[in-house]
Amino acid sequence: MSELNYDLLAPFYDSFQTTEDPEAWAAFLDAQSRFVAQEPSRSEGQGAGGRALAVDLGCGTGRIARAMQKRGWDIIGIDYSANMLSEAEQAVLPSENEGGPSALFLLQDLTRFELFGSVNLIYATMDTFNHITAAELERTLALCANYLHPGGVLIFDLLSLDYMQEEMGSEFYYDISSEHAVLWQNAFDKELRQNVASVTIFTEEGELYRREELEIVEYYHEPDAVLAALERLGFRTAIVKPESGLLDGIGAARRYFFVGVRRA
Questions:
Q1: CB of 30 within 8 A of CB of 68?
Q2: Nearest to 121 by CA among 76, 145, 153
């Protein structure tokens, strides 16, 4: 996963995520964390003033981080793209908001992230973990186990094979304005079980346009193998189905949702 690719995409990224509802994602994350968490309780959180503290892995432009702040969470956002983090810093609620929930952003590779202490919740949304290999995923899950407080919760989603193979692999997206044009063509390799997106970006420079080419790879991960890895790392795990009112806003038809609780 290249930080350069996402630096180039940062100004246009949200235009390709119009079917994703940050408020629905936050409602799902918040509800799941409260439902399965055992210790500590939200009143014994690791954030400022005892607030619950969450890590947003691959936080992107910060829309879900902001929605989580509105539900009372302190947030640590981690992303490999400086431009994405710049967008996120503008999106979240101000830290000085009358002592309300804060947000801290770290420029890090999410497969090698480092924290200052333990947290209550770690989450990755919108198929973030499909952008890393199987080896990188297991390493990331091990880091999550290391940094979660006993009883802390890990939540993430992965794309289904049917979706990647039958729908995603033939999709073409575009976003065109007077200042830019972004063209995005997917191609799924059934043998490798991975999707390669070829992206072309034109940005206005004076009377001309600059052309940039990049590729983004997403990998299919077998759910049973992921569950087994979580169990080995000391999680009590399940694949869950979101509440019916949230299904469309978080793309439930194309995703598996994993919830793990770190055993004491």
A1: yes
A2: 153
Identity (one letter) of the amino acid at 174? Y
Token pair for 66: 């902001």
Which superfamily, per CATH, for 163-219? Answer: S-adenosyl-L-methionine-dependent methyltransferases (2.20.25.110)
For residue 39, name the pLDDT band (cuts at 50, 70, 90). very low
Alpha-carbon Rg for the chain in angstroms: 18
Residue labelled with tokens 């929930």: 101
- The number of beta carbons lying within 10 Å of the beta carbon of residue 65 is 28
- Residue-wise pLDDT for 154-187, tens only, equals 999 999 999 999 999 888 988 888 788 889 999 9
Helices (H) and strands (E) counted in the chain, each on its own, are 7, 11
Measure the CA–CA gap between 21 and 251, rounded to whole angstroms.
9
Q: Encoding tokens for residue 155?
A: 């939540």
Q: How far apart are CA 157 and CA 159, in angstroms?
A: 7
- SS3 percent helix, strand, coil of the chain, rounded to 5, is 40, 35, 30
Question: Cα separation of 34 and 52, whole Å?
Answer: 10
The string over 85-100, giving b where at least 16 C-beta atoms fall within 10 Å of a residue's C-beta and e elsewhere, is bbbbeebbbeeeeeeb
Axis-axis angle for helices 223-232, 134-147 (nearest 10): 40
Rounded CA-CA distance 240/126 in Å is 15
Cα(91)–Cα(63) distance, rounded to whole angstroms? 6
How distant is the alpha carbon of residue 165 from its chain centre?
21
Report pTM: 0.91
Superfamily of domain 3-160+220-262: Vaccinia Virus protein VP39 (3.40.50.150)
Residue ranges per structural domain of the chain: 3-160+220-262, 163-219
Tokens found for residue 47? 């954030």
